[in-house]
Every structure is written in C-alpha cells, then in structure tokens.
Amino acid sequence: MEMTGAQVVVECLLEQGVDTVFGYPGGTILNIYDELYKYQDKITHYLTAHEQGAAHAADGYARSTGKVGVCLATSGPGATNLTTGIATAYMDSSPVVFICCNVGQKMLGKDAFQEVDITGISMPITKTNYLVRDVDKLADTVREAFGIARSGRPGPVLIDITKDVTAAKVDYEPIPQESHSRTGALGKLIRRSSTSSLLRPEPDQKDIDILVDMIKESKKPMLICGGGVTRSRAHEEFREFARKVDAPVAITLMGGGAMDGADPLACTDPRHPTAE
Fold first, then answer.
1. In whole angstroms, what is the distance from residue 261 CA to residue 105 CA?
2. Residue 118: CA atoms inside 13 Å, Cβ hemisphere, count?
3. Parallel, antiparallel or unpaired: strands 20-23 and 69-73
4. Whole-Å CA distances, 12 to 173, 254, 265
5. How far apart are CA 267 and CA 93, in angstroms?
6. Mean pLDDT of all residues in 25-29
7. How many degrees, rounded to 5, is the angle at CA 167 between CA 165 and CA 172?
8. Are 122 and 86 in contact (CB under 8 A)?
C-alpha cells in the first residue's frame, strides 16, 4: 500500500512492537509527529522538556524493560542535544534507536538553517548510523537499525532522515518482525557472515562442560556480576549459581540490582572476608 515516509516510520515501529517513544518535536520531524498523533491509541509518546531528557528516558526505558528504547528529535540543536544520551547508551550497552530528521536533500551540505551532520557527530558513539535520502530504503533501514541495536552487545543506533523523504510516497509492505532476519537489508547483512553477532547465539554443550570442569578444579573461584546478568534478566539463575559454587561475588556498576549487596556472598557485605 502507498504511504508517506512518515507513515512508514510509524508502521515500522509497530512492526518492532514499539508502544512507547520519547522525544521533542521540531520543524524537520513534524511529518513524523503528525503521523504519530494518529497512532496515539497504539504508541504512547512522552514529551520531555529537552532532547537530552528524552535520550536518557529512552535509555532508562530500555534498561528497565529489556526492549529497544526509541527517541525522536529534530535537526540541528535537537539532534546535537541527544549526544550525551547516545554516548551513555553506547558506554553502557543499552539498545536505543534514535530517529532524527534533517533538512531536505537539496539543502544538505549548504549550512542551511539547523542543518548538522549528526551521523558524523554520532559515529564514535553508536553501533552504526544512517542518513536516509531515499524513501525506498526507509523501511529496510529502520528494520536493520532495530536488529543491530538489540543484537550481540546491545547499543544505540541513529537514523537521520531528510525531511523530503518523510513526505515522499512509497509502496510499503508490512513484514512480521520474526521474518526481518531473513529479508531485506538485515537479512543480507546476516548472510554475509556465518558468525554474525546479529544471530542469537546457541549454547555449546562442549563449552559448558569445559567451563564446569574449570570451576570444579578452581581453588579460590570468584564471580563477577556485570551488566550481562541484568540485561538478560538472569538474576535468579546467577544467585542460584553463586550459592552452588559458594564463591564471593563482586558486583560491577552495571550489575547493580542483579545481586543484593547485602547478600552474604557479596564482597560488599561487611561480614564477608573479602571486605576486611
């Protein structure tokens, strides 16, 4: 069916199961906000007082729910205000998709009002980023962005869309999320590498057996509870494992909450020998 680029963005969000977004509107992204208004029964938008607040809110949402956070911002200062939030998500491996809109294609590179190269600025602090200048590639780009954000070591991905692309018409075909890894740009990316981190890893029994033997042979084992435990929601499994091994546990900053700091096995507990 024929849709505008702005409609395609919102429909792709629904494909990904998105029901919550954070952002602050502005001139170049108004087409997307106009469409988002029509979908308010399906997607809840939280308006913040500043784009940086929206970026951190989307990051916090991703951490607390395990879903991919979504943040919207306009061009120029709207986009640059996201950078602290993007960097935070990158350093802490938080899956967030940032969607910005830029000036029209004809104005790119001409120092137009509120034009900024946000893809260049965000390159060191994102897993990848995109500048979408062709509406035919928009849906594929959004699907690929979500796949990359949540796969392997999660992290932020930024999509910058020129304003004329959000207004252009294109034939859109909805694709179920479970089929994204086999179709379009994301499918091609995965097929290029048989060991792609975009694929969900399967546990290898041989590796597990080796690990068990190493633990059995260890004399003074110690466990480190990090962000991976929190991100995978493996709190109970980790605690049970720690008690079976009966090893002291060091809790990293990102592992906070996965293991109770007052637990007798936690190195932070004053009763534990390692705390002396």
1. 53
2. 31
3. parallel
4. 10, 31, 45
5. 25
6. 95
7. 80
8. yes
Q: What are phi and psi of 7, to 5 degrees?
A: -65, -40
Token match 């205000």: residue? 81
Find the mean pLDDT for residues 36-57.
97
What is the number of H-type helices and E-type strands within the chain? 12, 10
- The model's pLDDT over 135-177, given as tens digits with 9 standing for 90+, comes to 999 999 999 999 999 988 899 999 999 999 999 999 999 887 7
Domain boundaries, given as residue ranges, for the chain: 2-191, 205-275
- The fold for domain 205-275 equals Rossmann fold (3.40.50)
Give residue 255's pLDDT band: very low, low, confident or very high (50, 70, 90).
confident
CATH dotted code for 2-191: 3.40.50.970
**Locus of tokens 């002396």:** 276
Residue 193: name the closest of 141, 243, 240, 148 by CA: 148
> How far is residue 44's CA from residue 227's CA, in Å, rounded to a whole number?
28
Q: Which amino acid is at 29?
A: I
Mean pLDDT of 45-50: 97
Q: At what angle do helices 30-38 and 5-15 cross, to 10 degrees?
A: 50
Rounded Cα gap, residues 100 and 50, in angstroms: 14
The maximal CA–CA distance of the chain, rounded, in angstroms, is: 68
Which value, to the nearest 10 degrees, does the dihedral of the CA atoms of residues 226, 230, 231, 237 take? 100
Look at residue 272 in the predicted model and tell me its pLDDT: 52
Domain 2-191 and domain 205-275 have a common topology:
yes
Integer-rounded Cα Rg, in Å, for the chain is: 22
Residue 128 has which token pair? 């990848």
* pLDDT band (50, 70, 90) for residue 227: confident
pLDDT at 6 over 70: yes
* Whole-number pLDDT of residue 36: 96
Q: CA–CA distance from 15 to each of 43, 167, 179 (Å)? A: 12, 20, 11
